[in-house]
Write a structure and sequence with these properties.
This protein is about 80% helix and about 0% strand. The protein is an all-alpha fold. About 10% of the residues are buried.
């Protein structure tokens, strides 16, 4: 039997939940990037075909080139941060000394970054 099995199992479940979240963010980044490619193609065809739609040109602006890529990179950072936290927590579980329950900075930082990305996308779409 593994010592502190329930603690290690909880650590692994938390790790897998963070990996699942990272994969979801990466997948959403791919969807956003494909949608931006579609909108840019539609805007290019619309401009060459006659009177263009100014709204399509706004959506195919500079911001739309990078938002999907940023989401993909944030998803990768989430997975890497969860891996570091999983290894660190596993070592702390095996250690015989008592440790404080610190380390919420990583989750708070990632949550703030995701919230800022979502808010910037909301503001971008609301203004244009």
């Amino acid at each position: 039997m593994i010592n502190r099995y329930s603690d290690h199992a909880a650590n692994e479940r938390t790790f897998l939940a963070w990996v699942r979240t990272g994969i979801a963010v990466i997948a959403f980044g791919f969807v956003v990037e494909k949608f931006n490619l579609f909108v840019r193609t539609l805007a290019a065809v619309n401009v060459t075909g006659g009177a263009g739609h100014p709204q399509l040109e706004h959506f195919s602006g500079a911001f739309s080139h990078y938002d999907g890529l940023v989401l993909i990179l944030v998803g990768i950072v989430i997975i890497l941060a969860s891996l570091v936290r999983f290894i660190r927590t596993g070592r702390l579980i095996d250690d015989d000394q008592a440790h404080s329950a610190g380390g919420v900075r990583t989750e708070l930082t990632l949550a703030v970054v995701l919230a800022l990305i979502v808010m910037s996308m909301i503001v971008y779409f609301a203004l244009f």
